[in-house]
Structures are given as structure tokens and as C-alpha cells.
Design a protein that fits this description.
With 271 residues, the chain is of the alpha/beta class. 35% of the residues lie in helices and 16% in strands. The longest helix has 18 residues.
Length: 271
């Protein structure tokens, strides 16, 4: 009997955040993800009404045959009134959407410092939500706000979630750049709590840039190679700013470049 022929390892999954097509819509993100070859979508719940509608998101996923891997809760300044004003209720609805569309992660930012009641019980509350809903709430690294030589801490308990008792974490490379920290070092510090990666880049300015990976100064290639060889089993999601891509064609080119970068560097080790 002939020995079995070795089969090449499957390429790890790479997803597209719906935020990556802004100002175009959530339906456009699903269509592009399917056509360009992404494996899944992360839904950024935002001002786009489709992103807020569980049934429409499920329909888009089924119609384009692209699964939803994660739901990004509405945590931005501009989404403070999306799904109401109670931050815990927003997370409950995010978990409901995740369960209904088959996602296993909700991405959440730490509270703003003026959300003191929310922040006071945030770490413990996230643990309770995970236990009750069965959904992983992956808390994302943020950054201090900087103006000239001044820094302002606007997130509680801190913009860096590593030192707190969260079970699951999200690493955003652009946020690491804005905080002027090394994303690879942060990934190492996160260890096996790293559940979710926002693949992007930055050059260290005070502005959260969300560059196409490889266009900034972060060690993004090395980060992906580290994850590929360290047993990372979470999601890799391209979350970039394409508002300056020029037009639809330029946006698609940028999204193809980001996907190619991920496929090249987040590759399984040879057998």
C-alpha cells in the first residue's frame, strides 16, 4: 500500500471588517469580501442602519455565503446612541447578534473615562457576560489621546487591557502605533488571551491611521509570522481606512493588497 500523499496545510482564515469599506455600506462589504476572496466578515455596528439589523446581517451572510466571525459593538464616539445609550444593553444586543449570525466574538472597547458607572464594574461585568451568553468579549487595546506634548488618558480602567483580568483580548495594530508601542511585543504580552487581531498598520502619529498593513512602521509581517507559529487560533481581520483610496477601484486594490499581505505572512508552517 502506497503511503499517503502529504496535503498542503489549509490557509488560515482572513476576514474583512465592514469598517474597511467606509463610507460605503455594510452590503458592499459583504459583496466585496465574497468577490475578493475573504473567508469571513466582521460586522462593525455603526451608523449604517443595515449593520444594526440582525436579520439583514444574517441575510447578507447567507446570500453571499460568507460567515460572520465577529461583531464589533458600537463603542465609538459617533455611535453612542446606536442601540440606545445604556452601554451594557449595547453589549447584550451585540451578543444577541453574534449568536443569531453564528459569530463567536464580540469586540469591545474599554469605557470612556466619563462613563464612570460603566467603567466601575467593567472587568467583572465582561466576565459575567461571557459566562451567561457563551460569547467571547474580546477587549481591544486603545491609546492615549495626544495633542502637542500632552497626553490624556480617556479610557478606564486603561487603554492597555493586558494588565487586567480579561479572558479574551483584541489586538489592533493601528492603536498600538498611535500609543507608540510595539504590536509584536503587545501580542507576546497578551499571550494565549489574544483572541482577535485587527490587521492594519500605523506610523506612530497622534491620529489613529488604520493603514494598509506594510505601509506603516509596525512589525506587522513579524507579528503575523509569530501568530502563525505560536498556535494562534483566533480571527485575523483586515480593519483599514480606505477613505483615501480614491474610488471603488482603488478601494478594491487596497483590500486585495491587505489580503495578499495576510496570506503571505500568516501562513501555516511547512510540514
Amino acid at each position: 500500500m502506497s503511503p499517503p500523499v502529504p496535503q498542503p496545510a489549509a490557509a488560515p482564515a482572513v476576514a474583512l471588517s465592514t469598517a474597511s469599506v467606509y463610507p460605503e455600506s455594510t452590503p458592499t462589504a459583504f459583496e466585496m469580501a465574497a468577490r475578493l476572496g475573504y473567508d469571513a466578515v466582521e460586522v462593525m455596528v455603526g451608523m449604517d442602519e443595515t449593520s444594526q439589523d440582525i436579520e439583514q446581517v444574517r441575510h447578507l451572510s447567507e446570500y453571499h455565503d460568507v460567515p460572520v466571525c465577529a461583531v464589533h459593538a458600537p463603542c465609538l464616539l459617533i455611535t453612542q446612541r446606536v442601540w440606545g445609550t445604556d452601554p451594557w444593553a449595547k453589549l447584550e444586543t451585540s451578543a444577541e447578534m453574534a449568536r443569531e449570525v453564528g459569530a463567536d466574538v464580540v469586540v469591545v472597547h474599554p469605557p470612556f473615562r466619563w462613563q464612570r458607572d460603566y467603567a466601575r464594574g467593567f472587568v467583572e461585568g465582561i466576565a459575567v457576560l461571557e459566562e451567561r451568553t457563551g460569547v467571547s468579549f474580546a477587549v481591544e487595546n486603545m491609546y492615549p489621546w495626544r495633542a502637542s506634548r500632552r497626553e490624556m488618558q480617556v479610557y478606564l480602567p486603561h487603554w492597555d487591557p493586558v494588565g487586567f483580568d480579561y479572558t479574551n483580548l483584541t489586538l489592533d495594530v493601528s492603536h498600538a502605533a498611535t500609543a507608540q508601542v510595539d504590536a509584536l511585543d503587545m501580542a507576546v504580552r497578551m499571550g494565549d488571551r489574544l483572541r482577535h487581531l485587527h490587521l492594519t498598520d500605523g506610523a506612530g502619529s497622534a491620529k489613529d491611521e488604520h493603514l494598509i498593513p506594510g505601509r506603516g512602521t509596525q512589525p506587522v509581517a513579524e507579528l503575523l509570522e509569530h501568530l502563525a507559529t505560536s498556535g494562534f487560533g483566533g480571527h485575523v481581520v483586515l480593519e483599514v481606512n480606505t477613505r483615501r483610496s480614491g474610488n471603488r477601484s482603488g478601494r478594491e486594490t487596497d483590500l486585495m493588497e491587505g489580503l495578499a499581505f495576510a496570506r503571505l505572512h500568516f501562513a501555516p508552517a511547512p510540514a
